[in-house]
Amino acid sequence: MKKAMMLVKEVYTVTKEYPKEELFALTSQTKRAVVSVPANIAEGVGRNYKKDTIQFLHIARGSLYEVETLLSIALMLEYLVQEKFDQLTALIDGEIRILNGLIKSHEVRQDLK
Questions:
Q1: What is the pLDDT of residues 87-106, one digit of tens each?
Q2: Are 35 and 4 in contact (CB under 8 A)?
Q3: Which of 34, 56, 73, 80 ranks highest by number of CB atoms within 10 Å?
Q4: Global pTM value
């Protein structure tokens, strides 16, 4: 969760530099997607049912892929420099690995019941 929150901060900082005409398009969509990562992790962990928890972790992972795609678009449009893109995608990749581990762990525990 800590790393997901750090990613939110980094993405918010980066999107401040996007052109003003992107405020209600790429900027807004990127912010919504990145905020949904820790929000879905929190909601999933707060559920009493493993199946629900797994579903919310999957949603959080999907949001990470969405953020990565939106950052790729920003890079392509030259709103983002390659170095910053690489830093952010490294954070995203790390969070995806963590979520994959959590998902597998919960699936194993669910299968044991």
A1: 999 999 999 999 999 999 98
A2: no
A3: 34
A4: 0.91
| CATH classification at residue 34 | 1.20.1440.60
Range of the domain at 60: 2-112
The domain tally of the chain equals: 1
Q: How far apart, in whole angstroms, are the C-alpha atoms of residue 93 and residue 104? A: 17
Q: What is residue 18's three-state secondary structure?
A: coil
Q: DSSP assignment, residue 89? A: H
Contact between residue 44 and residue 53 where contact means Cβ atoms under 8 Å apart: yes
pLDDT per residue as tens digits for the range 66-84: 999 999 999 999 999 999 9
Q: Tokens for 64? A: 């990470």
Tokens 């044991």 belong to: 112
Task: Residue count of the chain, please give it.
Answer: 113
**Dihedral (CA of 45, 51, 56, 58) sign:** positive
